[in-house]
Design brief:
The chain is mainly α and about 140 residues long. About 60% of the residues lie in helices and about 0% in strands. The chain contains six helices and no strands.
Length: about 140
């Protein structure tokens, strides 16, 4: 038993590296939670601007996508498209394009910016002074 302890190549560093990894994991978890709460709040403000009474739905996964589909006047079954690889890119493009049009952002560039840099442009829509007008969103 004594020879096993003497040949340990780590010399007690397992506990230190384990604690560091746990601290990094917990920090990452809190950062992710903070990002989720901020994104949910921005979507909450977008839902309020769209006149939704259930703006709290912005914090509930999947249901917030269903409410967003209703806001941009797309059928609820489109939620399935968000789970199909490559098709989900098209579905997000259509939803974000209609959302941008509802906020009087007619250029396709704004849709591209929301799609690629949503962490910047979703807060701009939600926290900015832009008004949502459902008449600007095309009907199917």
């Amino acid at each position: 038993m004594l020879t096993l302890l003497q040949t340990d190549p780590y010399n007690g560093t397992d506990a230190v590296s384990g604690a560091a990894a746990a601290g990094l994991g917990i920090g990452t978890m809190f950062f992710g939670l903070l990002c989720y709460i901020f994104y949910g709040y921005c979507m909450y403000k977008i839902f309020q601007k769209a006149g939704r009474q259930d703006a709290w739905a912005a914090f509930i996964p999947i249901y917030n996508s269903i409410v967003l589909l209703e806001i941009v006047k797309k059928p609820i079954w489109w939620i399935i498209l968000f789970f199909i690889p490559l098709v989900n890119i098209y579905a997000c493009w259509v939803v974000y394009d209609r959302l941008a049009k509802g906020f009087s952002k007619e250029t396709p560039l704004y849709t591209i910016l929301i799609l690629l840099f949503g962490f910047i442009f979703i807060p701009v829509l939600g926290l900015g002074s832009d008004r949502y007008d459902s008449k600007l969103v095309p009907n199917d």
